[in-house]
Amino acid sequence: MRTRALAALALYAALVVALPLAGLAASGAAIGPYLAFPPRTEFVPHAPFAWGPFVVLALPACGALALFALALARARPRAPRPPARAFPAWGWLGIALLAAGWLLAWSEATPPQWRRHTFTPLWLGYILVVSALSARQTGSCLLTQRTGLFFALFPASAAFWWLFEYLNQFTDNWYYLGVQAQDDLDYLVQATLPFSTVLPAVISTWWWLRHWPRVETIALTPTRLTRVAALLALAAGAASLAAIGLAPEALFAMLWLAPPLVLFGLARFVVGKSLLDSLAAGDWRPLLQPALAALVCGFFWELWNWGSLAKWHYSIPYVQALHVFEMPLLGYADYLPFGVACALVADLVSRAIGSGALWPPEDDAGAASPGKNPSAGATR
Questions:
Q1: Residue 280: how many CB atoms within 10 A of its CB?
Q2: Does 289 map to a domain?
Q3: 40 in any annotated domain
Q4: Residues of the chain above pLDDT 90, percent
Q5: How many structural domains compose the chain?
Q6: Where are the strands (E) in the chain, listed by range?
Q7: pLDDT over 70 for what percent of the chain?
Q8: Phi, psi at 58, each rounded to 5°
């Protein structure tokens, strides 16, 4: 199982790198400029805002919101809830890091050489805070219950997000300002440190959110994800990756939709199991909960980026309007599939290090399946 999980991760990285280049070559463009590492960003103007494409692109986002609303409406919170525990002492360290990082990041009085490097301590503080909130609520969190996985997610996260930086070379949807690096190695180190916090932040937030009364019992209609469905997902994801290189202006959204499709397909075919297999029992939590967790993280990413010195800006075709912080409003929908991709990668990483499947969680054993009567004693 460990070898298969590592193979799935390696195949994912290979497909992400190779398929956009294949699409680019099919368009007749040179691939040489896209092979430089680390990939650097720059501002590239795109098609201006247009209501037609905006409405078309908003339809899937509205569908996702409707799915969440239906799942939450069908949730049946379990009662009674256990009493809250004491807030862990190490959680106060997280609060201190978060507060200090936020203050230094936004303060004009902070020396620029410090202010440019506040992202990592700020997000380390966030990770500790949400972990402490989870421990207070349930007595467990990713940090304390799956410690090996928690620390393994940091290097995995750096590699995971560098692949998105690579894909962004084709779409040019975001670029960084305020960064000062002497050379490529300096830039690589400066970028890798904050990139390493992405997966721990999303998965730790998921661990916290999944114990909220309604979120922990969201349920929808059972959906059997057969090998045919996995094959179709893998094919669609692969085609979408190629499309990023072939027609990035029109198909830029594939940057976010392709990864979860490819990861799901690879998990089913290479590993034989997927994080999303529980959908067959009507348990949509491993799909909807990490999507919600990424949206929560996305809000804070955009908030703290807004007042920072070293920051990212967006340049997105057709939807560059109605900004919330630096992000166009519709761009927040991308966090939903991104959260699913984070969960699928984290599950593969967990299997690869011998920590077992990420879902169902250990403290979920014996709990009633969402959408069923808890008194029936149904278990997964």
A1: 12
A2: yes
A3: no
A4: 82
A5: 1
A6: 174-177, 311-314, 323-324, 327-328
A7: 95
A8: -75, -20
Instruction: Domain of residue 143: give its range.
Output: 2-27+86-371
Query: Which amino acid, one-letter code, is at 295?
Result: L
* CB-based contacts of 223, cutoff 8 Å, min separation 6: 279, 280, 282
pTM of this structure: 0.93
In a domain, residue 112? The reply is yes
DSSP letters spanning 228-287? HHHHHHHHHHHHHHHHHHH-TTT-TTHHHHHHHHHHHHHIIIIIS--GGGGGGGT--HHH
> What CA–CA distance (Å, rounded) separates 275 from 294?
16
Distance CA 358, CA 354 (A): 11
Cα dihedral value 300, 306, 309, 315, nearest 10: 110
- 368 pLDDT band (50/70/90 cuts)? very low
DSSP string, 186-223: HHHHHHHHHHTTHHHHHHHHHHHHTTSTTGGG------
**What are the tens digits of pLDDT across the range 264-287?**
999 999 999 999 998 888 889 999
- Please give the structure tokens belonging to residue 197: 């916090």
Q: Which tens digit of pLDDT belongs to each residue from 123-166? A: 999 999 999 999 999 888 999 999 999 999 999 999 999 999 99
CA 160 to chain centre: 10
- Which residues, listed in sequence order, are joined to residue 313 by a DSSP beta bridge? 175
Residue 41 placed within a domain: no
Q: Which residues of 16-47 are buried (b: 16+ CB within 10 A; e: fewer)?
A: beebbbbbbeeeeeeeeebeeebbebeeeebe
Return the sign of the alpha-carbon dihedral for residues 217, 218, 222, 225. negative
